[in-house]
Amino acid sequence: MALKIRLSRGGTKKRPFYKIVVAEALSPRDGKFVERLGSYNPMVPKDHAERFVLDVERVKYWISKGAQPTLRVAKMLSSDGLVKAPVIRDQPIKSAPGKKRLEREAEAAEKLASAAEAPAEEAPAAEAPAAEAPAEEAPAAEAPAAEAPAEEAPAAEAPAAEELQRKRLQQQKLQQQRLQRKRLQQQKLQRKRLQQQKLQRKRLQQQRLQRKRLQQQKRLQRQEAPAEEAPAAEEDKNNRYTLSNSNLIEIGCFVGVHGIKGEVKVKSYAEKPENIFTYEEIFIDNDINPIKLKLVRKVKQNLICKIENVKTRNDAENFRNSKLFIKRESLPKLSDDEFYHRDLVSFKVYNTKRESFGLIVSLNDFGGGLLLEVNKDNKMFYLPASKRFLNEIKYKEKEVILNLDLSFLNG
Question: Which of 17-21, 364-368, 379-383, 402-406 has the highest mean pLDDT?
C-alpha cells in the first residue's frame, strides 16, 4: 500500500485551510486519511506561529516507513531539513513570446542593423567633397547623412507588418468559406428532408383516396345489383370486416404517439404482449385493408411499433385511439377443456336442472378465478366458472351449463 504525505483542503470559499495528512496514494484529496501530522494556514502572515504547524517526530516515522511527500509538502519539509529540497524545473511563462514571434523579431532586428550600416559606408564618400567646400556648407552636407537611417528604418518594418495582415486576411477568408460550405450542406439536407416528407404525405393521401374509391365502388355495385343477387350481396357484407361483424376480435389499441419518426404506442391484449405480431393480418377499426406492424422496442407495459409507410409524427396522429382487430380464424386451436372468452358472450346460462340464470355479458378474472357477468331481468351479477362449477359448453345451442342452484343468487 503506497502512502503519501499530502495536503487536505478545508476552510471556506476563498479562505482555505490545509491539513497535512498521511493517506493512501489512490485516495481522493479531501477523502479519508491515516493520520494527521500538522496544518498549513496560508491566510496568516509568513512569520506567524500558526502558519505552518508540524509534528516532526511523526513525520520522521512515516518517512522511515516509506511515505513519500508531495512536491508542495516537500518544499515545506525541506525548510526544516526533514527531506532534501526538490528540484524545481523552469516553468514556462504564459506571457513570454513564442518561437515564431522571436524569429520575426530577430529578422526585423537584422534588417534594422543592415539599414543602419548602409549610411555608415556612404559617409566617407560624402566627406571628400565636404573638405573642398567652404566651412559654412559642412553642416548642410552632414544633415542628410544623419537623417537617412531614421527614414529607412520604417521602410524595413513595413514588409513584415504587411505579411502578417495578408496571413490574417487569408485565414479569415478560409473561415468564411468553410462556414458557407457548412450552410450550403445544411440547406441541402433540409431540402431533401422536406422533399421526402412531401412524397410520404402524397403517398398516404393517394392510399386513402384509393380506399375511399374502392369503398364507394362497392357500395354502388350493391345498390345497382338486382334483387336476385341479394344473397350474394349479403355474403359480401358478412365477409367485409367491420366492428359489428362477430368475425373480428379486438386484440389491442393505439394508446398514443412516440417520438418524431412516426412511431406509435400499442397496448396489447394478448397473454404475452409480443404475441400480437404472430398474426399475419391486423385491421384498424372499419378499414378493410390490413396493416403491417413492426416492433421497435418494449416500454413498460406498452409496445413501441412502426407502421408501414408512416414516417412522421403528424401521420401517426391519425391512428391515435384506434382499435386493432384480427380474424377469428387466425386464432390458434384450443384443446377440449379450453375456450375463448369472446365465444361465450351472449350465451345462455343454465344449471343441470335447466333453470335459467340469464345471458352472459362478459367474462372477468379478478384473481380468484374466472367469473361470468350475467344479466337477468336487467340485473347484473357474477357466477363462478372455474372447472369445479363449469359442467358443459354447448356451442351449437349457445348454452353454458353450470353446477349451481338458483339458491346461489339469493345467498
Answer: 17-21
Distance CA 237, CA 273 (A): 31
Render pLDDT for 31-82 as a digit per residue (tens, 0 to 9): 889 999 999 999 999 899 999 999 999 999 999 999 999 999 999 999 888 8
Q: What beta strand segments (E) does 13-138 contain?
A: 15-24, 35-40, 52-54, 68-69
The per-residue pLDDT for 286 is 67
Q: What is the mean pLDDT of residues 356-361?
A: 88
Amino acid symbol at 372: L
Contact 304, 298 (CB under 8 A): yes
Residue length, the chain?
411
Give me the DSSP letters along 218-262. HHHHHHHS-GGGHHHHHHHHHHS--TT-TTEEEEEEEEEEETTTT
- Tell me the Cα Rg of the chain: 48
pTM, full prediction: 0.35
Cα–Cα distance for residue pair 344/352, rounded to 1 Å: 18
Residue 122 has a pLDDT of 60
How does residue 249 score in pLDDT terms, banded at 50, 70 and 90?
confident
Spatial CB neighbours of 294, under 8 Å, sequence gap ≥ 6: 277, 305, 306, 307, 308
SS3 119: helix
Lay out the sheet containing 68-69: strands in order across.
Answer: 52-54, 35-40, 15-24, 3-12, 68-69
Helix (H) or strand (E) holding 295: strand 293-299
pLDDT at 244: 44
Give the Cα separation of 301 and 265 in Å (integer): 10
The phi and psi torsions of 214 (rounded to 5 degrees) equal -60, -40
Who's near 336: CB < 8 A, 6+ residues apart? none
Please tell me whether residue 28 adopts helix, strand or coil conformation: coil
Taking alpha carbons only, the member of 194, 296, 209, 304 closest to residue 255 is: 304
Name the H helices within 225-362. 230-239, 313-317
Residues 331 and 343: beta-carbon distance below 8 Å: no
